[in-house]
Amino acid sequence: MKNIKQSEIDLVTKVFSDVFDKYDLMNDVMSLGIHRIWKKNMIDWMAPQKGNHLIDVASGTGDIAKSFLDRINFQGKVTCVEPNELMLKAGKKKLKSFNEIQWISAGAEKLPFESESFDLYSVSFGVRNFFDINQSLKEAKRVLKTGGRIFCLEFSKVENEILKKLYKTYSKSIPYIGKYFTGKSEPYQYLVDSIDKFYSQEELSEIFRKNGFDKVKYRNLSGGIAAIHSGWKI
Ligand SMILES: C[S@@+](CC[C@H](N)C(=O)[O-])C[C@H]1O[C@@H](n2cnc3c(N)ncnc32)[C@H](O)[C@@H]1O
Questions:
Q1: How far apart are CA 143 and CA 110, in angstroms?
Q2: Which residue owns the Cα nearest ligand 1 atom 4?
Q3: N or C: which end of the chain has fewer CB within 10 A?
Q4: Domains of the chain
């Protein structure tokens, strides 16, 4: 396992503790609401069936859980896993009428569930924050049932040169937008830097394969600003 520095863990915890109360608002502001379409795209590709049990890791305030349950008419279950207590509390409050959701405080690297427990695993804008992506994907595979599937929505690499330049210019303004709305720029600088450092579509596909997932595929969203990766436990 990668040697994780405590300072990295503290930084990620601080970032999300700083933004939890404005998290949903800022998602809408910074993406002009497009994150909602991307999340819907992931649920479309997932095509969940009634009776499915989804584990949504790095659940934040529970957007994926809500979208999944809406799609299957509330005839299934979601286990939301989130290590940040403040984000977890915000999610519980937002979705307090959703009895089909179980909220668990844990990190992706060590999931407190038996092997072969879930039909589907999702992670939306979370994999970039995992302290150990390899260990987390091994855990994802362990808790999925054989025949189960993982879906991962994450910022990715823009392929078109013109769009890349426009996106880079826009990215530079994100810490200022964050500061204007929340009074803090550091969490948004972290967001920009962590996106910049993250893997390309092909690199992430390879990491999924290396950790035991089969038939790994990805779909670009908005020219590669984000991408959805999917793989099977066979
Ligand atoms: C950008 S938010 C995404 C929230 C939600 N999935 C969404 O799409 O709106 C990332 C979340 O990852 C969580 N996180 C950070 N480190 C994690 C880890 N090691 N395991 C699981 N979740 C983690 C953070 O606390 C935060 O709530």
A1: 10
A2: 60
A3: N
A4: 32-158+199-232 (3.40.50.150)
